[in-house]
Write a structure and sequence with these properties.
single chain; alpha/beta; 10 helices; 39% helix
Length: 242
């Protein structure tokens, strides 16, 4: 089940997601007149950057979190359309020419279903350009979660290259390029690390706990990490709708 995000705290953090979003936009290959879906738009940061580059696109911002959609609406206003929707369900939108997505797909554990739902909303020949967590991501956090909870990180899927290529082919896409890119982020300040972990990495855990348990849980995870490093590995996908 999707969980709600603290959208404004998220947006205030020093996120590496900004760089990931710029890479997605650099690869998007738009002419500037397309209808584009931002799948898992978050606070609308990347959608706003896309509109700055291509003011003529018809942009749809979609996210499972109502708080994220509200933050995106505050940022972008009437320059886009908005939908609160789950990527594991048929998407409530008219067909688009392209899909962009930054730091979202790893929250969907069923990637074949994800790619199939996206394919059903994209015109033949349309493009998918995305970034998400990939194989090998968050090993430091996994070590800490094993120490604290007995299990590595749950509620996510960090997929590899070969599995992703196969799942794209089987669900309506031709994969042009699928690759992994390490991008570790070091946060030496304990308070910043705890805010980052609570807001970006551990929300699904905290959603299941009483509020008074949040801070002790996040602190225990932070103290159990072998290094103050969020060891990201990005899965970058470029594919064409068959």
């Amino acid at each position: 089940m999707p969980f709600e995000w603290d959208a404004h705290t998220y947006d205030a953090l020093p996120l590496p997601h900004v760089e990931w979003g710029q890479r997605v936009l650099d690869r998007l290959q738009l002419t500037g007149t397309e209808r584009v879906l931002d799948a898992g738009c978050g606070t609308g940061r990347d959608a706003a950057a896309a509109l700055d580059r291509w003011p003529g696109i018809d942009l749809v911002c979609l996210d499972a979190s109502a708080q994220m959609i509200e933050a995106a609406r505050e940022r972008i206003g009437e320059r886009a359309a908005y939908a609160v929707a789950d990527l594991t369900e048929p998407l409530p939108i008219e067909p688009v020419d392209a899909v962009m997505s930054v730091a979202a797909f790893h929250w969907v554990t069923d990637h074949p279903l994800l790619f199939r739902n996206l394919a059903e909303s994209v015109k033949p020949g349309g493009r998918l350009t995305s970034d998400c967590g990939g194989e090998g991501q968050l090993r430091h956090l996994d070590a800490a979660l094993v120490a604290v909870t007995g299990q590595p990180k749950q509620y996510i899927r960090f997929a590899g290259v070969s599995d992703t290529e196969a799942e794209l082919r089987e669900n309506g896409w031709h994969p042009e390029s699928v690759r992994l890119r390490p991008h570790p982020v070091r946060l030496e300040d304990p308070d910043l690390m705890e805010t980052y972990l609570a807001t970006v990495c551990l929300g699904a855990y905290l959603a299941k706990m009483p509020a008074e348990e949040h801070r002790p849980f996040v602190r225990a995870v932070r103290e159990a990490m072998p290094e103050p490093v969020v060891d990201y590995v990005r899965l970058e996908i470029d594919a064409v709708r068959l």
